[in-house]
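Appendix B, example 12.
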Amino acid sequence: MGLLGKLSNSASENIKVASSKIATSILVSLAILWIARLCCTIGFALTPFLQIKFSEKLDFLVLSTRFDLKVVSIAYIPAVLLALATFFKPTFFKIFIKVFKYYSFAVISILVIFSVINYFYFKTYDKCIDTFIFAASKEDPVAVLKTVIQDYPLFRGLIGLCVLFFVLKYIYKKIEAFICEYIITPERKLSSAAFILVTILSFAGFARGSFGTFPLRQLHAQVCDKSAVNYNIPNGILAFQWAYKWNKLNGKIPVIKLEKIADDYHDLGIEIKGKSFDDLVAPLKHTTHKNKFLEGRKPNIVFSVMEGMSSHLLSFDDEHNRDLLGSLRQHANEDFFFDRFLSEGDGTSDSLTRIFLGVPDLNLSTSTHADKNYITNIVRSMKKAGYKTIFVTASTASWRNYHNFLHTIGFDEVVERSQVALRFPNATQNTWGIDDEFLFKEALRVLKEDEHDKPIFLMTLSITNHPPFVLPKNYTATDMKLTPEMKARFPYPNIEVIFNTFKYANDMLGKFITAIKMDPKLKDNTFIAAVGDHNIRGIGYTQHPDELFFGHQVPLYIYMPSAYLENTNVSYDKHRYGSQKDIMTTLISHALSDFTFYSFGCDLLSDDKCNFPYAYNQDVIAKVGEDYVCNLNGFVDANAYKITSNDDRLLVDPQRSNDDCTKALGLKRLEQDLYFYQANQ
């Protein structure tokens, strides 16, 4: 970015030039961070930002600037120390000039790159960089690269970055020349010494983020009750640093005492009488009703986790103009279809781990804690009930070490994409695995053709409806008749493909259900459940605070043969709140007689009392029967918002209400603390 000034025997002149260069770099760095923040705020948080008070807006500006100063000051401390050395030995100035040219370029480049990453992370996940970014290291690198190339303007972005750096170089020189002309530095040694002292103290204060007792930390990054606004307080590199810190801590399970778990129950309004572990898991204990009809009639249970099965996309379904259900429509109308339902995680692995084990750790499959005997392990419960447990995935079983993990938690067999491809040589594939048509053909084969002396508990994981969205060539796309409003909400070049891929996945699921219902050996003794792993992402939920709950909604479908419905006292309300923790509890409650298992779940098809009647996601909770939703900000704070909608889109009033979220926080802490306690055993 150019050299300014020549080597001088005058320490004051050298300090003047060095100060000009450092000041210019700091100003340019701060400008980059603020422009990046402005882009994120306008792009993803403008609506909530306009809703907060003026004082909160002012706090946002001040606090975010302090965080930027903290990052920039730390970045340039080495340069400042080298520059100050020229005061004692002017010949160091030549070294400083050479080093600083590259050092400044490196710092500015890093700030730009992390700002860009943070922008697109926000666009995809509705938040600044967090620990989920490290999950990419556990994915298929080729598939990740293909997804990035298709879904993000990678090549145009690289060209844009090159242009940006040329522009920055020009601007940098102009600013540097201006500052060097007008900056005033002391001439005398005593004044210079004072200048150096003030500079050192200033940088120390800015690096701490505070001149007071306590340094500026992550816990200070909140100015209001709008998460989208708070997510914009840290800059990209600071958000990454926090994520890295927490990611390292996630591998370290803290020691939790039983008294802490009892306190969590107390917050939920549940008092624990004893002090043993058995006493502490007693509220999780379920024993199904003794039922003569169910004795000797254990049904097969099929549980399909559907990639990207989104309530948001489903809300645009129109049977006559925009059919998004395909063959699933008939079954959704005939059977049970819950629309006010939440995924518990916001990623596939996160939701699966919670479904399997009731554990809030999306990286558990690659953790040393994967083999612990978690009390809420639903797979082992099914084995205990006499089931053969099978998992069929359209992806590779090496994904996130799932082949080992699935066997560890109790699955007898794991079938993955390569095995499906061998059985179906004409199977079409996408970036991440086998297309859903052939996944379900394999699932049907397992149910019909394999010799089983036990009932089957079969879980499937689909993959076609996953970025990068590619519709199988043998499937005919339809005109989705998208309105301008819909296109504005889904700012992607392949929006037609996204909607058609969603329909394809639902259509294949529907045909699979039809095949089971028409099979004389399966139709009367097979339960089916299908749920989305998470809602669609990257469409700006933070710009729509009223979609706090809706942003995590996924549909749940359940089929039970008529004989089981008639003999197990079914009570159905399609608008009942629920989440993924409730699925297996519901199925087991209507499949097994006098069977005991442990779960956070409730029976969604019963009016029986449940200790945890919540639709639960790691970010939001709604209690059955209440008229508000709690937005969970970590583990120490939560804000309530009144529910305003009466249809399948559950919306909230963006203005905070005074309702109590103590129990919501208690449930989140209980789930985590119970996991920590068991992981240490």
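The CA atoms of residues 288 and 594 lie 5 Å apart. Residues 1-9 have pLDDT under 50 and may be disordered.
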